[in-house]
Write a structure and sequence with these properties.
The protein has 10 helices and 8 strands. The chain is an alpha+beta fold and 329 residues long. The chain folds into 2 domains: 90 residues, no CATH class; 229 residues, Nucleotide cyclase, GGDEF domain (Alpha-Beta Plaits). Strands 1, 2, 3, 4, 5, 6, 7 and 8 form an 8-stranded mixed beta sheet that branches. Helix 1 packs parallel to helix 2 and helix 6 packs antiparallel against helix 7. The longest helix is centred in the N-terminal third of the chain and has 44 residues.
C-alpha cells in the first residue's frame, strides 16, 4: 500500500511538474498561432514564473515588441512611399502641361541640380501677338480671356512637344527656352520647328476665331542661341526656374524686329548656322540691336520654298552678303 501510494503521489507530482513546464510553452505556441492568424504583433505572452521558463516568455515578448516596432516602421515607410508616389504623379500630371517629360524626370531624379545656377547654351524663343491692345479693346473681356487662353494652350502644347520649357507669360507674349534642364542634340532646331508649327497652328486658330466673329491673331517670333545663366532665381518664399543673360535680351529684340521687317519668324546667326541645312533661311540685314555696338545678321526662316523661291532666296542672300561686306575705298 505504501508503495502504491508513493507511486500515485509520484505520478501526480510528475503531472504537475510537466504541466508547470508545458503550460507556459502552450501559451507561447498559442500566442504565436494568433499572431500568424491575425497578423497582429501586439499580442503578448503572460509571464507566470520568474525562472528560465518565465525568462523564455519575457524574451518572446521582447522579440514580438521589436518585430512590431519594425513592422510599424516599414508600414509607415510604405505609406509615405505610396503618398509620395501619388504626389509625384499629381505633380507630373500638372507640370506635363508646361514642361517636357524628360525635364520633369530630371527634376525628380536630381532636384538639387535644379536649384543651382549654371551656364548653359540654350535656344531662347520669344513670341508676341501683334496689336493685341487694339484687339482686346474691340472685344468683350470674357471673349478676350477665352481667345487668349485657347491661343496659349495651342502654342504651349507645341513648345512642350518640342521639349521646350515655357518660362513665363508677359501679357500676350510667351518666353520659352530649349536645352535645360535636359540638353538635346540640336535645341536650335527644336526651337525653329516649334516656331514654324506655331505659325501653322495659328492659321487653324484664326479659322476658329472667324467662326466666332472674332478678329484674327498675328504673331512674331524671335529665336536666339547662346550662353545664358539658368537656374532657380528668386526669394526663399518664391523661386522661378528661368534664364537670364544678354542672349535672352537679344532673342526679345529679334522678336521685335519681326514688326520692322514684316516677317513672322526671325533668327540670329547662331541659330541659322544650326538649322540652315534643315530649313531655308534668308540673310536680309545687319540689324541694329539695343546694347550692341554693331548690327547683327538676321535671318527669316521658312518651312519650305518652291524652286523659284529658292533661286530668289539664294540670289538675294548672296547680294546681301556682298552689300554688307563692302568697304568703301
Amino acid at each position: 500500500i505504501i508503495l502504491l501510494t508513493a507511486a500515485i503521489v509520484s505520478i501526480l507530482l510528475l503531472g504537475l511538474f510537466i504541466n508547470y513546464i508545458t503550460f507556459p510553452l502552450r501559451n507561447i505556441v498559442e500566442v504565436m498561432r494568433e499572431i500568424i492568424a491575425e497578423n497582429d504583433l501586439s499580442k503578448r505572452v503572460p509571464v507566470m514564473y520568474k525562472d528560465e521558463i518565465g525568462e523564455l516568455g519575457h524574451t518572446f515578448n521582447l522579440m514580438s515588441s521589436e518585430l512590431e516596432r519594425a513592422y510599424n516602421k516599414v508600414k509607415n515607410y510604405a505609406y509615405k512611399a505610396v503618398v509620395a508616389e501619388k504626389d509625384e504623379k499629381k505633380i507630373r500630371k500638372i507640370f506635363q502641361k508646361y514642361v517636357p517629360h524628360d525635364a520633369i524626370g530630371q527634376f525628380f531624379n536630381s532636384p538639387d541640380d535644379m536649384l543651382k545656377g549654371k551656364s548653359r547654351e540654350l535656344a531662347i524663343l520669344f513670341s508676341d501677338i501683334r496689336g493685341f491692345t487694339t484687339i482686346s479693346e474691340n472685344m468683350h473681356p470674357e471673349m478676350v480671356v477665352e481667345s487668349l487662353n485657347q491661343y496659349f494652350s495651342d502654342m504651349v502644347d507645341i513648345i512642350v512637344d518640342h521639349k521646350g520649357i515655357v518660362d513665363k507669360y508677359m501679357g500676350d507674349a510667351i518666353m520659352s527656352f530649349f536645352g535645360a534642364p535636359v540638353k538635346h542634340k540640336n535645341d536650335s532646331l527644336l526651337a525653329v520647328q516649334s516656331a514654324l508649327e506655331m505659325l501653322e497652328t495659328l492659321k487653324e486658330f484664326n479659322k476658329r476665331q472667324a467662326e466666332k466673329s472674332r478678329p484674327p491673331f498675328r504673331i512674331g517670333i524671335g529665336i536666339n542661341y547662346g550662353p545664358v545663366t539658368v537656374g532657380n532665381i528668386g526669394s526663399e518664399k518664391k523661386m522661378h526656374y528661368t534664364v537670364i543673360g544678354d542672349m535672352v535680351n537679344t532673342a526679345s529684340r529679334l522678336e521685335g524686329l519681326t514688326k520692322v521687317y514684316k516677317q513672322p519668324l526671325i533668327v540670329s546667326a547662331s541659330v541659322y548656322e544650326r538649322v540652315k541645312k534643315d530649313f531655308p533661311c534668308l540673310y536680309i540685314d545687319n540689324a541694329a540691336i539695343k546694347g550692341r555696338k554693331q548690327g547683327i545678321p538676321i535671318y527669316p526662316v521658312q518651312k519650305s520654298l518652291s524652286t523659284t523661291e529658292k533661286e530668289v532666296y539664294q540670289a538675294y542672300s548672296e547680294g546681301a552678303k556682298l552689300y554688307f561686306s563692302f568697304t568703301p575705298v
